[in-house]
Amino acid sequence: MTEAPIPEAPLADRLARAITLAGPMPVSQFMAAANAHYYATRDPLGTTGDFTTAPEISQMFGELVGLWCADLWDRAGRPDVAWVELGPGRGTLAADALRAMAKSGLTPPVHFVETSPLLRAAQAERVPQATWHDTVDTLPDDILPIVVANEFFDALPIRQLIRRGAGDASGGWHERLVACQDTLFLPIAGKPVPVDVLPEPLRDAPAGSVLEISPASVGVMASLARRIAGKGGAMLVFDYGYEGPALADTLQAVRGHAFANPFDAPGDNDLSAHVDFTTLAAAAQGAGAVAWGPVTQRDLLGQLGIDSRASALARSAPDKAEAILADRARLMGDMGTLFRALAVTHRDWPMPAGFGA
Ligand code: SAH
Known about the structure:
The strands form three sheets. Strands 2, 3, 4, 5, 10, 14, 15 and 16 form an eight-stranded mixed beta sheet that branches. Strands 1, 6, 7, 8 and 9 form a five-stranded antiparallel beta sheet that branches. A three-stranded antiparallel beta sheet has the order 12-11-13. The protein has twelve helices and 16 strands. By secondary structure, it is of the alpha/beta class.
């Protein structure tokens, strides 16, 4: 006789119990647990979900990314490359890019890094030939990767450091932890952190200042950049973010296209943080690769020819012309300046399109 599995307690209860037993947990641990549950239990994308991403707005996004890859691959001498995508969502970006690349003669094997079983199934519908990985560590060693990541790094856990008054050995900086009172989660200042982990110009920030660091993001970037620096390859990252170091509390929760309290209902909101592009670029350079940009999404898509692509699509489907131009405006408007693109290449590879002076 097989026994029915014991249903798992809701994530909020499990986190509350863990905090009761072991004490308040770092923001990074809370964010990692919340997002793992969130992405494993739903498809968050689109008008009926919690947020909409660039590839879900328009096929033009994936097609232009595909052209960027095909152009770089061509000028690099047409080596055997693999398409590697981090957090591919529904697989829409890959499907659009692969279609565009095939027109240039580039038909690479596909590797997806994706933890959510639910989204893996959605990806398999659009890109059935893909091979899936839980982390970048299991990507084969013998491939030259062209890595693409849209809205991936913002979902990786961040640590938050908060400054209280000066005057102790830590200079007043503490790790922010998540405590639990009854059923309410709330951030508190925890253990002091040694002041030397902080960038020098920020050490004397006013009380209440928050500094975010994402060791998980740096780890992923360093690992991929090491591969690229070794045998060749490239990477294109899109996300919302800033050129750090900067002091800001950017941890945010989104549900049903509206902002929510990031400490409420863990696992039911999308948690994200703005990406520090300066730190990502430094991680790539530290691993021996060349970093380009960041440039704004608007500048990059403009240089890659979004206007002529939109006109061509509108001409071939006049009944959809208005919608196509509206999608173009959405990718190039507020989103176009909030989002940035960072490229990484092997030192002997050519300059990627859209990242010139
Ligand atoms: N790139 C897609 C989806 C963005 S949402 C798009 O632009 O539409 C974030 C994606 O990253 C989802 O596919 C999510 O399941 C995945 N993801 C989040 N955290 C992850 C992690 N730690 N490891 C692997 N994938 C992760």
